[in-house]
Every structure is written in C-alpha cells, then in structure tokens.
Amino acid sequence: MSGTGAPAGEGFEPDDGDEASPQDAVAAAEEAEGELRQLVVGAGHHGARLDKALADLVPELSRSYLQQLLAQGLVRWNDTPAAKPSAKVKAGDRITVEIRPTEQSQAFKPEAMALEVVYEDDHLLVINKPAGLVVHPAPGNWSGTLLNGLLARDPRACLVPRAGIVHRLDKDTSGLMVVARERATMDALVRMIAAREVSRQYLAIAMGRWRHAGHRRVDAPIGRDPRNRLRMAVVDLGLHAGKPARTDIDLLAAGAEASLVRCTLHTGRTHQIRVHMASLQHPLVADGLYGGVPAAGLSRQALHAFRLAFAHPVTGVPMEWKAPLPEDMAAAVEFWGLRYN
C-alpha cells in the first residue's frame, strides 16, 4: 500500500477517511495563488507552534499545505525565513505567507491512464493493479498514481477522500484492490477492513527450497526496524513500538531454488507478507529491501494479491474476485517448474 520515503503496506491497514477531501484544499490554494498574506499573531496564539498558528490564521488552507510552504521558504517570520513548523510564536509576531503551488498541492489532478477494472457498480470498483503503479501521491511520486487515474476515470471520485482509496498495495506489488465510489461505501469498507471482514490472499515466490511445514502460521508483531527506518521488521513489543500481525502461509509448490506460497492476511500491517517471509529466512524473490535478489527475470518483489472477497457493503451479497498471476511471475513459476493446482 507507495513511493519513496516511509514504507506503505501491501496489506489492508486502512486509511481512516476522516479528513476533508484533498481536492478541497487544492482548490483553496489555487484560488489564493500568488497572494501575499500579512498576519499578526494575537494573544490567543502566544506560545503556539508556528504551523498551528498558521493553520488557525489561514483556515482555508490545509496545515499540510502550509507546512509545504514553510519547507519551501515561502513563510517569513518577523522578516526572517521560517523553516521550523514547531517553532513557538509570540503575540505581536509578524508572519508573511507567499501562496504558491507546491508539488503536493498539484498532486490531486486527473491523469488519464489505462486501468484494469474487474468489477464495477454504483458503489465500488475492484481494480487489478499492475506492478510499478504507485497507489497514492507521496514524496518522489506526486503524479502518475492510481489516485490520479481514478480522478480522470470517474468525476465522482473528486467527491470522496483520496478518490475512494481505502487501502494500498506497494508500488511493486500487483493485484486486486477495492475502491469506493461514494463516501458511505468508503466508510463501510473501512469498518469492514478494521473488523477483518475482508478476505485477501496473495501468491508469492519465496527464495530457496521451503524448509517448513506445508502450512505455517506466523504470528509476530511488526514495527519500524530500529536499525533501518526505511524498513519494517518483526519486533519485540516490550522494547519497540509495533502492532500484532498474523499471516497464514501455505506451500503450493517447492523447487530447489524457489518456492510458491499462498499467503492469507489476518491483519494488514505495512509490508506484512514481505517481513514475515523474511523472518522465515525465505525473502521474496527480487525483494531487495528484505534480502531477496532478482532471479528468473523478476526485478520486483514476487508478490501478487490474487484473491479478494467480502460481503458487498451496500447489498450484503457475498462477492469474490481472483486475478491470475501477471506475466513476470507466471514466467518465473514456469522457469522453476513450480507446478500447482
């Protein structure tokens, strides 16, 4: 569920959908573009953080957008460029804000792209995401994302936070995602994900001959790797921050150099499958972040969300979708002779 910077999960850890639509903030920024705002800190904001005071004094612009202006040196505090959002202001301080477009403020724009929609009704879409497609704008990937494609495909998407995206897949993970087309459906899907009422299964190619039982349950908490902040890791909750995580792993086919497994998520932590597989000493093929190496033509982590199932959040009808292995993973399975039913 990513571009560069902090990792985003291939699981279903949901976005909460509680903030206003990002498009609203963009529109407000565009209306005020090129304007210089002259502000004076009042007694009610004495001692407040600079970014908090700005958010209150310019309420039509989001705090995130104002922080971007700060980072670009477009905010002056008592005639000095202000760089630290956490700096404390005093009553009588003078603040000048130069409102300009930023990369992030331009991110929520429609961009036409081919999307493989495997199901659609008035309430939701199910999409088969290709490897290489970033789901949500983030540092290093402010355009060309699934969100941009959804905004171009459906005019209704601009009325829903994050264009209806309720969960994420990593940039280099392929497979099925559900997207809400209206706010009520989005809220229902978020509740269902949190209640573990959405079933999701992945196919993965692990490095090496399988050294475990045919069925293996991994129940190990995941948090930020204390030695590498760009990675996640299995952690001891007594020593490090993290969340419980559980994955069921079933061996489908074993070879001398690689093994094909099916992974069933019971939680949806960031990089959950990748971390749990690495903890078993079977990192995914080509998953360089967690110890895998490219092989059999695979240059991205060998992970595909192949099955998605849940009761429709509006009609209650049980629904299920499956997406076959993409060409690169199918070719690797063939190369290693990993036959499975």
Please state the average pLDDT score. Answer: 87
What is the global morphology? globular
Major sheet size, sense and barrel closure: 9 strands, mixed
* Secondary-structure element string: HEHHEEEEEHEHEEEEEEHEEH
Poorly predicted regions are: 1-8, 14-32
Beta-strand percent range: 15-25%
SSE inventory with pairings:
Blueprint: H1 22-31, E1 36-40, H2 50-57, H3 63-71, E2 75-77, E3 80-81, E4 94-98, E5 117-120, E6 124-129, H4 146-153, E7 174-180, H5 183-194, E8 199-207, E9 215-219, E10 222-224, E11 232-234, E12 246-254, E13 258-265, H6 272-279, E14 303-311, E15 318-322, H7 327-336
Parallel strand pairs: 7-14
Antiparallel strand pairs: 1-4, 2-3, 2-4, 5-6, 6-7, 8-13, 8-14, 9-12, 10-11, 12-13, 14-15
Helix pairs in contact: 2-3
Describe, in plain words, how this protein is organized in 3D.
The structure is a single chain. By secondary structure, the protein is an alpha+beta fold. It has helices spanning 22-31, 50-57, 63-71, 146-153, 183-194, 272-279, 327-336; strands at residues 36-40, 75-77, 80-81, 94-98, 117-120, 124-129, 174-180, 199-207, 215-219, 222-224, 232-234, 246-254, 258-265, 303-311, 318-322. Strands 5, 6, 7, 8, 9, 12, 13, 14 and 15 form a nine-stranded mixed beta sheet that branches. A four-stranded antiparallel beta sheet has the order 1-4-2-3, with no helix packed on it. Strand 10 (222-224) and strand 11 (232-234) form a beta hairpin.
